[in-house]
Amino acid sequence: MGIISRGFGGRRRDSAPDLPPGQYLTHDFPVLSAGPTPRIPPNSWNFTITTETGAEHTWDWAAFTALPAEEVTRDIHCVTKWSKLGTTWKGVALDTLFEEVETAADFVMAHSAGGYTTNVPLDDLLDGKAWIAYEFDGEPLRPEHGGPARLLIPHLYFWKSAKWVRGLRMMHEDEPGFWESAGYHMYGDPWSEQRYHGD
């Protein structure tokens, strides 16, 4: 399943009770990718929300980083069974981006550089649940972790937090993205161990 670097040494859940079932605690930050790591200069990055009617709302890097930002500390959980607790990010809440977006759609497809996609219910992006993050631990987000900006949805398995995110497309019906089409769960709740279709 893609490229993995920096081993998954960690402790089992019984010594870290805040972990979802089946997860291991890690103190490093493993890198997993479905392909090569894009190198995107911030001045060539933009982000677009496209509604179900085709209306587009686009921010370039300067406009995006001028938006109100939040620093949040959250636990993250990968479907490959590692968890990292207390990670600190800075980014723009999806609530802020959707303030000017009119939509009647219930679902979103996130699109990333390199063609990666993942589907998410709109409700899981709003009400303080998700961000477009561009800093990690007080530093600009490194390319291997999705920089210059990635989707951050910490309450779902981390494949939903699309790296190198470039936009969101609104949908009336749920559709599978990249990993979902390959057999991963359509939703991906770590506390319910929704790793694969049928879980």
TrEMBL record:
Residues 35-179 form the Oxidoreductase molybdopterin-binding domain. It comes from the Bacteria. InterPro entries: OxRdtase_Mopterin-bd_dom, OxRdtase_Mopterin-bd_sf. Residues 1-22 are annotated as: Disordered. This is DMSO/TMAO reductase YedYZ molybdopterin-dependent catalytic subunit. It comes from Actinoplanes teichomyceticus. The lineage of its organism: Bacteria, Bacillati, Actinomycetota, Actinomycetes, Micromonosporales.
